[in-house]
Amino acid sequence: MTYSTGFGPISVTVGDFNNDNRLDIVVSNWKDNTTSVLLGYGNGSFANQTTYATGASPRSVAVGDFNNDSRLDIIVSNYDDNTISILLGYGNGSFKNQMTYSTGSKPCFAAVDDFNNDSRLDIVVANCDGNTISVLLGYGNDSFANQTTYSTGLGPYSLAVGDFNNDTRLDIVVVNRKNNTISVLLGYGNGFFTNQITYSTGFTPSCVVVSDFNADNQLDIVVADANGKSVTVHLGYPNEGFLKQMSLITGNGSRPRSFTNGDFNNDGQIDIAVVNSGTNNIGVFLGYVNGSFANQMTYSTDSSPCAIAAGDFNNDTILDIVVVNRDNDTIEVFLGYVLLILLLTYLLYLSLDLYAHKKHI
């Protein structure tokens, strides 16, 4: 199912914006300085978009409750005016006009979490041209302290948050697009962070997610390598940091741009879904308990998919996927039961092929 957005959609995330226990979708629109909110009906379909003004060239979008009123709010990083926009939610699916806060140069990604353990959400932003991240601590009343910046590698493009050293304090990982590294900044638990530790990764890293892929109670890092036709998995080891474990091949000309993780086949293992902007498809890598993955299975999308998010849009306990198609100003929703049937069919085909091969031998 396809839905219209604003011009140049580039980022997407999900949340329940009107407190009806049905997931909704929010998209940032790069070319017309808006965000689009599409309210979900709970059956896998969505209402037409409602748009809200942002700053110049909104690059990424995230959600959280910034004023502790039990209503989800929206944050957008505005690439061309060096700000973030906060849109406070009314709890009925609509939002107030934006408030803005200064960041570093060319903010291209934002995430939210509680970095100083005060039960108030904070914000971290990757500044592409400043080679920094900005941390803005929240007061819990919809306002934020001025940014504190930390150095990264060259061209920080995306980031994720997690406790990488199991000290119950949140840390930050950043992908540095221009020097093919990831930076890990360990948190002190008071809103401040250590200097970066860097690790090599694939070519032109464009996105990062974290999860425990091998069930060892240690967070792992996965990076999409836009010019490397692959996804790089870095398994975490206690007191040793992250080691380059494997590359998952997405195909020639695939240009993987963004991905999400979740259990897409309901086997209890974390899987990866990546959008391949060069080949116009979604690649799904099914995970095994040891942290390795099956070969990619692909599903066709519209033109130039550039962002992806997952959620249960029809309340059937199976994860669904939403993809942003940059070149035709749309999002596509892929319902999980359809994906699951295709996954099972593919696995059955592999089993039959393997059986036939053994019988021939």
UniProtKB/TrEMBL annotation:
InterPro entries, per database record: FG-GAP, Integrin_alpha_N
Keywords tagged on the record: Membrane, Signal, Transmembrane, Transmembrane helix
One Pfam family it belongs to: FG-GAP_3
Membrane-crossing segments per the record: 334-356
Protein name: VCBS repeat-containing protein
Organism the protein comes from: Rotaria sordida
